[in-house]
Amino acid sequence: xxxxxGVVSKRGPQPTASYPHAHLQGGxxxxxxxxxxxxxxxxxxxxxxxxxxxxxxxxxxxxxxECGSSLDRVxxxxxxxxxxxxxxxxxxxxxxxxxSPPPVRTAWGVKFLAAEPGTEVVRVQIDxxxxxx
Amino acid sequence: xxxxxTVTTKDAPEPRGPYVHAREHxxxxxxxxxxxxxxxxxxxVKGxxxxxxxxxxxxxxxxxxAxxxxxxxxxxxxxxxxxxxxLDSMNRIYGERFHQPLPARTSFGVAFLWKGARVQIDxxxxxx
Lengths: 133, 128
Description:
By secondary structure, chain A is α+β, with helices and mostly antiparallel strands. Chain A is built from 2 helices and 6 strands, in the order E-E-E-H-E-H-E-E. In chain A, helix 2 links the parallel strand 4 and strand 5.
């Protein structure tokens, strides 16, 4: 086996382009940015920012577990979001989901994330770098 | 549970959300993106982009010091800023504050930043 490899998990929304869910190398796992998509249907979940961010973190957690890691081993996250009015909800949801002490974080506002049929838009995505057990 | 050391210092603005200032892992220290907030008051410094960016780098430097690293051990920096008109100021200030061997760098314009910041900078640095 190669010293580094991509991982696609059945427990995350299936990739729709040329990327795996994660890439393992040297005791670390880099996880592809996750949006609030249901792993079964691939559809964006309801519930606005709160629903989407909870689902995105669920997806990260499932992918991390598949890679022998977990949310409490995350070193760094990056969050991209589309509406400045969502910042307090982000902190609230994120603060409940990540164990203490939390990871380091970089977040920024973007113009758009992904195209989506219907009226709901992808409001947030989150990636991470974590230690593997 | 992870054995990483996390770092939070009084010399940088107190975290106002669920994050630590820095986290050490595998000989590197990862630093949370810093904005131009005064470590004492927690408020944005006055003076526009240049003041904010210098303060953000001051905050980064304080966190690196508390972690046992320094600006001259930064491997990679990442800068996000809101206004394209600040690009030249960003490059000039960055050039004044970072020295050889310069880190790898990614910088880009964003739609907006947390709580209305004009600029932010994060980094990964060596502990050696």
